């Protein structure tokens, strides 16, 4: 079933060893990370981490995020990060921490030829502003955080569908279904024609369950409960 997916799978994480291992598998069409994942992984040298990845990953897109919170410093960081490789996409947040739109900067950098991944979008209105900024520019990604939308109790599929329609005005941009929570999201993304979905390292093993026979899965679950009860030595 994995072979029939219409959506490209990007691995999302910051564990160097895992990323390099996944990079050996052509199934993964790209890679993303972010400062939070890097911090949680205990990384302290951003540029060195990127260098080690880019020594091995040269043929697929990989996104690295700026961490500044003002336009001028974001611009400087974006140009530096972009210089690391032709396959590098620079992640720019949709706004600053003070909710100032970064669409003007996105437009400027995209027109310069930088490959941009605009991140942390959650509304069609944000996608509209970003699509206008990316139209006519370099290849780009627009990351809509569907998982976080769902966490807020909102059905993300209508927003993903609307975002795909909006991005028709920016044909060089591809939509990323970001922050998935379950394998079902991969199927949903493929069904609606979303270009890319990011899959975190903890979710990757579950991809092997895609299309699994449910009768067999039920039996394996029963067997697991019994095995673990016996192993625990429970008595009544």
Sequence-ordered SSE layout with sheet pairings:
Elements: E1 8-12, H1 16-22, E2 28-32, H2 35-40, H3 46-56, E3 62-65, H4 71-82, E4 88-93, H5 103-112, E5 116-121, H6 124-134, E6 140-145, H7 146-151, H8 157-166, E7 173-178, H9 183-192, E8 196-200, H10 214-232
Parallel strand pairs: 1-2, 1-8, 2-3, 3-4, 4-5, 5-6, 6-7, 7-8
Helix pairs in contact: 5-6, 6-8
Could you explain the architecture of this structure?
With 236 residues, the chain is α/β, with parallel strands linked by helices. The protein has 10 helices and 8 strands. An 8-stranded parallel beta barrel has the order 1-2-3-4-5-6-7-8, surrounded by 5 helices. 36% of the residues are buried.
Secondary-structure element sequence?
EHEHHEHEHEHEHHEHEH
Class per helix and strand makeup: alpha/beta
Count of helix runs: 10
Please tell me what the overall shape is: globular
Helix content: 40-55%
**Share of β-strand residues:** 15-25%
How large, in whole angstroms, is the Cα Rg? 20 Å
The parts where pLDDT drops under 50 for at least 5 residues are none
Reading side by side through the largest sheet, how are the strands ordered? Answer: 1-2-3-4-5-6-7-8
What is the makeup of the main sheet?
8 strands, parallel, barrel
Mean pLDDT: 97
Kindly state the number of beta strands.
8
Beginning-to-end CA distance, first to last residue: 44 Å
């Amino acid at each position: 079933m994995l072979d029939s997916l219409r959506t490209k799978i990007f691995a999302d994480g910051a564990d160097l060893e895992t990323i390099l291992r996944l990079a050996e598998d052509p199934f993964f069409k790209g890679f993303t990370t972010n400062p939070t994942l890097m911090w949680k992984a205990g990384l302290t040298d951003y540029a060195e981490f990127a260098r080690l990845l880019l020594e091995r990953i040269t043929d697929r897109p990989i996104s690295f995020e700026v961490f500044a919170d003002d336009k001028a410093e974001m611009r400087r960081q974006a140009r530096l990060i972009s210089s690391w490789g032709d396959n590098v996409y620079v992640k720019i947040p949709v706004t600053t921490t003070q909710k100032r739109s970064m669409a003007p900067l996105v437009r400027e950098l995209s027109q310069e030829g930088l490959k941009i991944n605009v991140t942390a979008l959650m509304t069609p209105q944000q996608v509209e502003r970003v699509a206008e900024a990316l139209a006519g520019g370099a290849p780009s990604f627009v990351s809509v955080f569907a998982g976080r939308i769902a966490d807020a109790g909102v059905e993300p599929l209508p927003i993903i569908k609307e975002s795909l329609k909006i991005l028709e005005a920016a044909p060089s941009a591809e939509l990323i279904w970001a922050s998935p929570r379950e394998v079902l999201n991969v199927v949903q993304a493929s069904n609606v024609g979303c270009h890319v979905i990011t899959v975190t390292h903890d979710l990757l093993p579950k991809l092997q369950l895609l299309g699994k026979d449910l009768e067999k899965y039920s039996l394996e679950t029963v067997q697991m409960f019994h095995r673990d009860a016996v192993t625990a030595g429970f008595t009544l």
